[in-house]
Design brief:
Helix content is about 40%, strand content about 20%. It is built from 7 helices and 7 strands, in the order αααβαβαβββαβαβ. It has a 7-stranded parallel beta sheet with strand order 3-4-2-5-6-1-7, sandwiched between helices. Strand 5, helix 6 and strand 6 form a beta-alpha-beta unit.
Length: about 200
């Protein structure tokens, strides 16, 4: 188990390899580093056939990132969506913490503890200044962004995407209107984003 370098950057892997005495085991350790693959992994936009399918795929994405020992932030536009997304993920066996001010938590609750590896669900505004290995941004549709228009919406989306260190997962229900969808399509056309249905 100590020879698995799945979460190490190439520089850390190279340094740690100096402390392995056996040449063959040292070479095996260096080959196991997967960090470089994560760096090249393009962001993914999933166009779900339904809201339930969107939550199913979100749960899969979060579980997959947890296996990689990544810190996951799930960002949404409104406080009401924090509770809705948290409930949907809990229903699918993915425990999460809601990272919103204590006063806003529905039914009380203890909020988020950022020292643990439990995925955090927060609004874009609550996430300012935070970083996560992976950022998931579900429910990208007009209903979610009713309070935001034009440049303000683009700034909010930028803030969300910029919280990610290694990977970004975006999702919406296919066919639900979203003004910024043209930006995501342009990003996909230029090879900066993968769109899956």
């Amino acid at each position: 188990a100590l020879l698995e370098a799945y979460r190490n950057s190439p520089a850390v892997t190279a340094l740690a390899a100096f402390f392995i005495g056996d040449d063959e085991r040292r070479a095996q350790y260096v080959r196991q580093s997967r960090f470089r693959l994560c760096e090249r992994e393009r962001p993914l936009y999933f166009a779900a056939p339904s809201e339930e399918a969107e939550y199913d795929r979100l749960a899969e994405a979060v579980k997959g990132r947890q296996v990689l020992n990544q810190r996951v932030g799930i960002l949404v536009a409104r406080n009401q969506l924090v509770d809705r997304v948290a409930a949907a993920l809990n229903k699918r066996g993915v425990p999460v913490e809601r990272a919103v001010p204590q006063i806003k938590l529905a039914g009380g609750g203890s909020g988020a503890i950022f020292g643990n590896g439990v995925p955090k669900v927060a609004t874009f505004h609550s996430a300012k200044g935070l970083t996560f290995d992976t950022v998931c941004m579900p429910r990208l549709n007009e209903d979610s962004f009713v309070r935001f228009r034009g440049a303000q919406r683009r700034r909010i989306l930028f803030v969300g995407i910029a919280r990610a260190i290694q990977w970004v997962y975006l999702s919406a229900v296919d066919g639900e209107p979203f003004e910024e969808m043209s930006l995501f399509q342009a990003a996909a056309s230029s090879g900066k984003l993968v769109i899956q249905k």
